[in-house]
Amino acid sequence: MNYICVECHTTYPLESNKWKCECGGLLNLEYEKKAVDFTETATSRNHSLWKYVDALPFEKDDVWQEITLGEGDTPIIKIAENVYAKADYYMPTLSFKDRGAVLLIAMAKKLGIKRVVADSSGNAGTAITAIAAYGARAGIQCDIFVPASTSSKKIAQIEAHGAAIHKVPGTREDTASAAIAMVKSTESFYASHIYNPIFWEGTKTYVYEVFEQMNNNMPDAFIVPVGNGTLLMGAYIAFQELVANGQIEKMPRILAVQAEACAPIMKAFAGGQDTVEPIEHTGTLAEGIAIAAPARGTEILQAIRATEGDIIGVSEESIIEARKQLALKGIYVEITSAANYAGYLQYMEKYPELKDQQIVFPLCGAGLKSN
Ligand SMILES: *Cc1c(COP(=O)(O)O)cnc(C)c1O
Ligand SMILES: [Zn+2]
């Protein structure tokens, strides 16, 4: 198993702790993949994402068994005819980030790593909370870098897991630079959900689960929120694997959603560009997807286009209204998650033919995580 550069295809063993190629290119993961036997998983007694271990970079009998907190195998809820919500707030740290975090930390454990570095990509800090939780579970020391402006409530949760917090004055970029400086100086494992492709090995299980829950069928389209695109990239990898294994004939469409107030990828897509320019933004309530300079922009654009998908921006008002509407259906989600339902409603107007098609959107995070 190797990291492989998306630009020049140089490979690096995982033990190298590389997080970027010498050429500056980002890294993907390369290993021999096995197909999941869905007849076997359908009756598995393992009710977590680990029932798909055949498709993951681990053995059946491996370190993940000591680290799992039961993440994954989340319910899907019927919202209307042909429309389903996948409730990823049923997770140990209340968001889908646990899918990626458990894979990252389990791999670090497998590699014999004692200490990892991570940083917050946005205000929500959901990924680092998950990393800190699984780090505690695995007995791995986490050094977590956050902007100095991060709320004390979030910091308290991360510290409760025993992680060392490093508060960095300045911007989110300053925080990332400080984390990277420590990764370099200590040659640590960078448990980054943006740079480390092992994270997507976890998020891809979202699609494996949906496929099984829909009786070994794919919906026609997946509504996917995009900040850094970790759920989107995971979903796309799963589509490619299922096609390669002959388990589906064609990929479902990725219908991506950004907050209109912070939509660099939508802008690039609409402009027909192949790369994403960072934007200035005025802020959005959907802080979990407020990523002005997504590192994986090029790959995200490719994935959307490869599935004949689309990407739209939703307004602040529509996010608030969607959250209200979901709550009136008994579903209380994080504000960021409401963007997905707002996106679904907007897509139904944009493509009326969707009403005869099966659609799944995610409930990414629990309502109590937002103020
Ligand atoms: C992280 C997060 C997202 C966005 O995920 P990306 O991987 O950044 O695209 C969406 N919703 C919630 C609730 C999140 O925590
Ligand atoms: Zn390279």
TrEMBL record:
UniProt xrefs under SUPFAM superfamilies: Tryptophan synthase beta subunit-like PLP-dependent enzymes
Gene Ontology BP terms: isoleucine biosynthetic process; L-serine catabolic process; L-threonine catabolic process
A single GO molecular function term of this UniProt record: threonine deaminase activity
Keyword Lyase: yes
The Tryptophan synthase beta chain-like PALP domain, residue ranges: 67-365
A family per Pfam: PALP
Cofactor annotation: pyridoxal 5'-phosphate
Top-rank lineage group of the source organism: Bacteria
Protein name, UniProt field: Pyridoxal-phosphate dependent enzyme
Native organism: Bacillus timonensis
